[in-house]
Amino acid sequence: MTDLSALDGATIAFDLDGTLVDSAPDLIGAVNATLVAEGFPPLADDEGRPLISRGARALLQRGLELAGDPEPAARTAALYGRFVSYYSAHIADESLPFPGVIEALKILKAAGAKRVVCTNKPTELSRSLLAKLGMSELFDGVVGIDAVTAPKPDAAHLIEAVHAVDGDLARAVMVGDADTDAGTARAAGTPLILVDFGYTETPAAELAPDVLLHRYDDLVNACVALLDGSR
How do beta strands 96-97 and 114-118 pair? Predict the structure, then answer.
């Protein structure tokens, strides 16, 4: 059996959308409800998924660009509130944690690792999603884009997320799915695990993670291996 002692007192920071939760159906659904209400065609799933790591505004703006709106940035700003209202009401209609996530988080918790969500999603929306999926008690903190001095890929987001749960950056690991997560981990000097089933414009394997994760069954052992050298 794997020795889990390296996890005690360590901090594992997780991206949310595309890393912990398959939230694309509800995110793209909310974007499309907003677009259609304005007379625009919906955004195709394959156009939207890779952009989710950049946030809902980027997703909405892409839909407007493809629809031929002459001022997509300005229209995005005008429609964002409508998007948030719809998304808040439908945030977990189809979203689900990825297979193995719950089990892995429970093992990390039992082993004494701090777990924090480090996401470019607004904090309250993140908390709402986790609550509706029954995942809230599995985290010590949720740090969204509105709760930091600079968002991912700036190192500040990860640093402040680790500090929010009284963690030590020297004993932290970042788990994500996209270049924003890779960028913040590298900027903060933190080991990086990327899942290969998330939402990213650049394939996770090309972002040179320390560990490329194919399934959550392997997460705990990956964290142990990366943390063993930091004790």
Answer: unpaired
